[in-house]
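Much of what follows relies on a compact textual record of a protein's fold. The record below shows the convention in full:
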Amino acid sequence: MKIYMAIDDTDILGSRGTGHLAEDIRRDIVSKFSGTCENISRHQLFVCDDIPYTSHNSSMCFVADIGDDSFDAIVKHTINILETCSADGSDPGFCIFDREKLDEEGGRKLMDFGHRAKRTVLTKEEAYGLAAQLGIHLSEHGGTGQGIIGALAGTGLRLEGNDGRFRGWIVENAETKMTVRECLEQLPVMDVVDLSGAILDESELVLLNGKVKTVPRRGRQVLLVKKKEDGGQSCWVNLGRDEIKSLDKV
């Protein structure tokens, strides 16, 4: 069974971030439930004074393959973590669903909700209404429960596969050149892609510089690169964190 899971609003300023809690849950699915998990993606949502958020208003989501008999236990386990580990004063929300039970129309509605959450204020009532319509588990676990909006939106954006960025760095303090083939063989990268969306040939040379981050594209974990002049010759170089963030403006 392939599941999509997202949490949001589990922290306050100065507390341990939602990404860390998502990583704890992800590790537990592997160690306690023998699942396999993809990396966590961060999805930037609408920022305005009418929406309470800690620092950036972003949701954390990941995809996992689990045994068919593990779903209910994972839901219960995650709820326990959210209710015991979320920061006092936070508004945790939790969303999870079985991908096979979401049809094409339902997927479009969920993705649309995710995109609307990037550009406008949505309500808990809208979130609960859509979740009920689609048969998706959506629950709040403290405070106002406002995090359910971001949790539901995060699953929709991850489902679409072209939004946000993956948590953490695949390389830190890099200063090396590799072919695309070497990147695919040695790094957690499925494609190397330029800013137009084109997939680079495996023979192309890439300069890895600084902290290297990946993003979702077409549902795959990819390295985004741009052209750069290096010693009088043009080569490809990875986008920096700020450049990747600028692509995710809402």
